[in-house]
Amino acid sequence: MRAAHIETFNYCNLQARGLHGTEHVAKWDEAFHYMQARAENYMPSNYRTIEHQHSLYLVGEDNCGWTLEDYVLPRLASGSIFANEVTDQSTLEALEASLNNDDDEYTNADLYGPVTELPSTSQPTA
After folding, report:
1. DSSP state of 125
2. Most buried of the four, 51, 77, 95, 111, by CB within 10 Å?
3. 49, 46, 22, 55: which is closest to 37 by C-alpha?
4. What is the pLDDT of residues 12-71, one digit of tens each?
5. d(CA 16, CA 35)
6. What is the DSSP letter of 66?
7. Residue 48, SS3 per DSSP
8. How many helices (H) and strands (E) does the chain have?
9. How many CB atoms lie within 10 A of CB 1?
């Protein structure tokens, strides 16, 4: 699994600047989810975003030319969304555990796609 941390803090704080208490939290949360949806529009299907400990990460597996360093990060940067690859093993393990959490709204099937059966090649008998 590959992962990167998406820099959302400055954007969310800018959106919530000048607000206090619950108004600040609501505006920050709105900005965070806007950034999450925006980032997903720039990613190939082998990567997706997840929220972990109030931070936004993208996770996935490299597939052919759709790699983290050669496609995903530059593609995000083209939309002024900046991310840094996660290399810390404990963070990667926590993100993988978050993916496998049954309470998460996504599952690994959402990340890797459904498993399909190949059509049978045998001919029906009459």
Report:
1. P
2. 95
3. 49
4. 877 778 888 888 888 888 888 888 999 999 989 899 998 888 788 999 999 988 899 999
5. 14
6. B
7. strand
8. 5, 4
9. 13
Residues 6+ apart with CB under 8 A from 98: 50, 52, 104
98 neighbors 7 (Cβ within 8 angstroms): no
Which helix (DSSP H) or strand (DSSP E) does residue 74 occupy?
helix 73-78
Distance of CA 11 to the CA centre of its chain: 17
Question: In one letter, which amino acid is 4?
Answer: A
69-78: long-range contacts (C-beta < 8 A, 24 or more apart)? Answer: 71/44, 72/4, 72/43, 72/44, 72/47, 73/4, 75/42, 75/43, 76/6, 76/39, 76/42, 76/43, 78/42
Structure tokens at 46: 């082998």
Place of tokens 């393990």: 93
pTM (two decimals): 0.70
Contact status, residue 98 vs residue 107, Cβ threshold 8 Å:
no
